[in-house]
């Protein structure tokens, strides 16, 4: 799966990009028909819930699966968004397996 990573309002360091790439590679084994993925890492102004936002969109035939998570670190945001995507992937598989 081709993964595009975009950092908004900050410069992502190599360590963060490698972390995201590794997590997305693990997610790739859950969904075979994915054609691509976009990961948007955004620094937000809201500090209460955490100002680090991760939005992940996976392109699959017939649908786009999207998850957004916010926390105090980008790593935690990416982990939470991937957890949400895993649930969506399971629902997607059940829906199209019939």
Task: Provide structural commentary.
Keywords: Ribonucleoprotein, Ribosomal protein. One of its GO terms (cellular component) is ribosome. The protein is α+β, with helices and mostly antiparallel strands. The protein has one domain: Ribosome hibernation promotion factor-like (Double Stranded RNA Binding Domain, 2-Layer Sandwich), CATH 3.30.160.100. It is 40% helix and 34% strand. The chain has helices at 14-28, 74-97; strands at residues 2-8, 36-43, 52-60, 63-71. It has a four-stranded mixed beta sheet with strand order 1-2-3-4, with helices on one face. The longest helix has 24 residues, at 74-97. The radius of gyration is 14 Å and the shape is globular.
CATH architecture label: 2-Layer Sandwich
Helix-residue proportion: 25-40%
Q: What is the class in the CATH system?
A: Alpha Beta
The CATH homologous superfamily corresponds to Ribosome hibernation promotion factor-like
The Cα radius of gyration reads 14 Å
The number of distinct helices, counting runs of at least 4 residues, comes to 2
What is the CA-CA span between the terminal residues?
24 Å
Count of distinct strands: 4
Write the CATH fold name.
Answer: Double Stranded RNA Binding Domain
Spatial arrangement of strands, main beta sheet: 1-2-3-4
Mean pLDDT: 91
Question: In sequence order, what are the helices and strands, one letter per element?
Answer: EHEEEH
Number of structurally distinct domains: 1
Low-pLDDT regions: none
Helix and strand composition category: alpha+beta
Q: Name the beta content range.
A: 25-35%
The largest sheet, given as strand count, sense and whether it forms a barrel, is:
4 strands, mixed
Principal-axes shape call? globular
Keywords: Ribonucleoprotein, Ribosomal protein
Pfam family, one: Ribosomal_S30AE
Protein name: 30S ribosomal protein S30
């Amino acid at each position: 799966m081709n993964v595009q990573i975009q950092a908004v309002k900050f410069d992502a360091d190599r360590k963060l990009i490698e972390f995201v790439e590794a997590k997305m590679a693990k997610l790739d084994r859950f969904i075979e028909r994915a054609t691509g993925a976009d990961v948007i890492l955004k620094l937000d102004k809201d500090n209460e819930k955490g100002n680090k936002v991760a939005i992940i969109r996976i392109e699959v035939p017939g649908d786009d699966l999207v998850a957004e998570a916010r926390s105090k670190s980008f790593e935690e945001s990416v982990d939470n968004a991937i957890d949400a995507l895993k649930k969506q992937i399971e629902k997607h598989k059940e829906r199209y397996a019939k």
